[in-house]
Every structure is written in structure tokens, then in C-alpha cells.
Automatic annotation (TrEMBL):
This is RNase H domain-containing protein. It comes from the Eukaryota. One of its GO terms (molecular function) is nucleic acid binding. Transmembrane segments: none annotated.
Length: 138
């Protein structure tokens, strides 16, 4: 990833799509460069042999209520969890974006060097992969 992007790293996988984001620096944790100058975050197929910190995400919309959660496992032991609720007018895609961003914030605040964020949101993974193709500039 481009220099100037922060020092934390992450890995993300999609359970239904079998994808995994490789470890990369996360520029948006410490905004040294504007978003349009940061590299995309590619993902690859998930492997069942992942070790260390695994953060599983889930999100849903039911009865016009949108919510999400993540659960943190450290070497297969549940270590923590977090739930969040969005405005009733929010979309599931917004919850999926937040479900990726909340674990990133979590492992940054907990000074984790690497974590694997497991998600089933292929659309968010594709957006991260194509971040340079989005029009970020003012």
C-alpha cells in the first residue's frame, strides 16, 4: 500500500463468497494522505487455517430496523463483541460498511498489529478493492 497510509493491518474474508483481504496498512485510521491517494485493498479466498485475532461481522435489517455486530476471537476463544444500531432509514449496505469500519477502529484502539475481519459483504469488499476507481476528490 502507498506510504503515508497508517501502520495497522487487517485481513477480511467473506464467508458466503469465500474471500479474504490480505494484510495492509489502513490509511483511514490516521489520515496522512487524502483517500484518493491511497491504494485499493484486494481480497483473496478465505482459508480455514487462519490463526490469531478473527473478527466476524454481521448486519441485518428487520422490521425497518438496521443493526450490526462483530465478535472478536483470539486463537478460537471469544474475547469481545460489539453491537450497533443505525437510523431506521439506513440501508443494509451502510450497516455492512460500518461492520467493517467498527472492527478496524477496535483493533486500532486495542493496538492489535493484525486482525482478520470476516464479512459476508461482497459489495463492500469490491468497493474496498476498487477504492481508486471512486470519485473522492472534491
Amino acid at each position: 500500500m502507498t506510504s503515508g497510509c497508517s501502520s495497522s493491518s487487517m485481513t477480511t474474508r467473506s464467508s458466503t463468497q469465500g474471500t479474504l483481504i490480505q494484510s495492509h496498512s489502513l490509511s483511514f485510521l490516521k489520515p496522512i494522505l487524502p483517500p484518493w491517494n491511497c491504494s485499493s485493498i484486494p481480497w483473496t479466498p478465505y482459508r480455514n487455517d487462519l490463526q490469531g485475532v478473527l473478527i466476524f461481522t454481521d448486519e441485518s435489517k428487520m422490521n425497518n430496523k438496521v443493526a450490526g455486530a462483530f465478535v472478536v476471537y483470539n486463537n478460537n476463544i471469544e474475547a469481545d463483541y460489539n453491537t450497533f444500531r443505525l437510523n431506521d432509514h439506513a440501508t443494509v449496505y451502510m450497516a455492512e460498511l460500518l461492520a467493517i469500519s467498527k472492527p478496524i477502529e477496535y483493533f486500532s484502539l486495542n493496538h492489535l498489529e493484525e486482525a482478520h475481519i470476516i464479512t459476508d459483504s461482497r459489495s463492500v469488499l469490491q468497493a474496498l478493492e476498487n477504492i481508486n476507481n471512486l470519485d473522492h476528490q472534491p
